[in-house]
Amino acid sequence: MNSQPLHLLLFGPPGAGKSTQTEFLETEWKVAPISTGALLRAQVAAHSELGKQVSALLARGELASDEIIIPLLRARLAELSPDEGFLLDGFPRTIPQAEALDKILTELNRPLDAVISLELGTTEAVNRLGGRRICHGNGPDEIIHINDEAAVARCIERGGLLVQRPDDLPNVIVRRLAVYQTQTEPLLNFYRPRGIVRTIDASGSPQEVARRVTAAIQEIHPLTKTW
Ligand code: AMP
Fold it and tell me: What is the pTM of this model?
């Protein structure tokens, strides 16, 4: 067993199953999931000075400035215990952020091990997101697919409501996918020369995708034993 903590970036278009894979990775590997979007939302919820500065731009879906996001990320990474790795989601989003991340990781002596890029065709992404519903009410929210008859029946039985996120409407999905493609490709090219980018076919069941992700990480970090 390799005791070195793993340092991972996770990329993937909306619908590729990033949150599901994060749950697998977090459980099976000792990596702290860090989402810069979640860090910002926590500041807004806490009504901090920073939260007040970013709440309007978060609502508009605009990027927070590097002056805000980079120190926030640096502070979160510095909190990790020495044996704890990380799985970064939502950062970097631009080349200057990728350069800033390099500097922080050098300072903290935590070299990146792998950049995992989940890949999914547009048709399948639109189908997954377009059919995604949240079963809301009488218990914890549950994400289900409209074609999953058993899950729909369970939701109705518990008196839940099937809710569609406004950004899961088809025209918005196509725009979100396009934005992802234009902003992420240059980032993958930034990391490619280091030989640490692994593109993973994100079609199939979550378990199948998790197996592919695990195999890819083990190829890069061969001594780390998981499931
Ligand atoms: P996410 O949860 O990753 O979709 O992020 C939600 C929102 O947080 C984004 O729409 C941005 O407003 C902001 N955000 C998250 N990560 C970053 C980042 N790396 N740079 C700038 N803004 C970010």
Answer: 0.83
